[in-house]
Amino acid sequence: MMNTFTLPGYCCFFSVLFAVPLLQAEERKYESPEIRQAILHLQGNGARVHFNMPRTGAFRPANAQREKEYSVPYTVNLYEMKATAENLSALLVLPQVERLYLSNEFDRSDRTWKTLSQFGELQHLSIMDSLKNEDIEHIAEFSNLQSLEIRLGDVDSSYLWYLEELRNLQRLSIHVDGDDEASFTSLPNMPKLSQLILHLHGTKPVSLDGIENLKELRSLNVNARAIQGSELKGIAKLSHLQLLTLANAEFAASDLEMMFQQLKGLEYLNFTNCKLGTNDLSALKNLSKLQRLQVYNTPIDDDSLATLVDLPELNYMYVRGSDITDDGLKHLAKMPKLNRVYLYHTKVTPEGVKWINEQRPKMKVSAPVQNN
């Protein structure tokens, strides 16, 4: 007769199986007693330290090779920690800091930068404090950085050229606040930089002239307190741009036309709280690769949708806060690849939604309407 597992034996076997890795995980909570002591010291002085120990299997074949040494990556947030000698010494105990977050509480003197420069493996750096020229020089020494977030503050625009050393940088986020002055004319080409996020919330005008130096840029997000279309002319020269988000921009009709005539490769476009001059989307008529369009609290009308009918790849549209009516749905029904539509806070009626569902039964339409 064939042997079978009994339920008690089966449960006992797996209880032992899972107990082993749990015990090992507890033992490996920290890489060493010294690292444990350093982390507890940092946390006790306002830092936040996050890390994940690697998991190991409970069983391994007898001929398996010894596991390779695994260096644990650490995320360190120093927003609430002061740069005392003791705290800096504790930082140096951490073997691999991959992400680092700094603010004004952590004084950036020559001594602190000398300590931070030991993190040669650093990939992600965020400094939410007003920078000075010397800060940019030190930041440029982190050659392995993949993402960088900074507030320009008192930095002379010419010092942005130091970022040329960041040959591996893929994502750059720049904040301009208060009375900060900013110019991007000295922004160098960074060969791997594909994403740029600009938070332009200062009181002074900022021109984007110079961002055309970023030859490989694929994604641009401009979140401004208020910005004129004439200040965005540099965008038109980003020939490889695929994703563009603009917030609080005000265009003249000619500005809009000039920009989108050259952005032939654009696939995703988002207008948020913008003014398009004539409430018209005709400037988008030649974006043959456009797949997704979002128009949020940006006035457009029914006729403006007619110019989008011939866009061959448009498959997703989100419109919120506009005067589109049932007449506009007639244009949506003609868009060949459009299969997902969101319409919120418009003048579309239940009858209009029913009609487009009948015309395009495979199109998914989300359009909550208010009955008067």
TrEMBL record:
Highest taxon above the source species: Bacteria
SUPFAM superfamilies: RNI-like
Protein name in UniProt: Leucine-rich repeat domain-containing protein
Upper taxonomic lineage: Bacteria, Pseudomonadati, Planctomycetota, Planctomycetia, Pirellulales
